[in-house]
Amino acid sequence: MRRHQPAYARRLREVLTVSGTWPQYAGISADGRHPQLWVLAGSNTWNVAREYARSRYLFLACPPDADPEALDWRLLAGHDPVLLRQCGQLDGDTLKRLVLAVLRDGAERVLYLPEDGQVRRYIRAGCEVKYAAA
Question: Which residue, 42, 61, 79, 112, could crosslink 87 as a Cys pair with Cβ 3.0–4.6 Å?
Fold first, then answer.
């Protein structure tokens, strides 16, 4: 079964293929070689995604009505840590499925940035996912 791309995947793919343009985006390392990638999720995802696009962030969006496990997150592989931003209401089950899907598709570390400010870190260790205090 072929999985669909997350929202903004085409834009992100185009940027990632031309590394010389990376320094013009927010969150790029000082040497211009390591882009910081974000995943936006929650009830207010679309509004935040529009802001991020204008602010030159590199991100993918998980639409509020989407099944995160049905999406292909492989664009994030090799860009650790992936930052996962809560945008409005995000239930625990959707969060868990999203983190697992991002790690399943090749990310090694996910930093979850909830609205309550309590950052959580998830890591892939072999075949299991571990929660580690940030």
Answer: 42
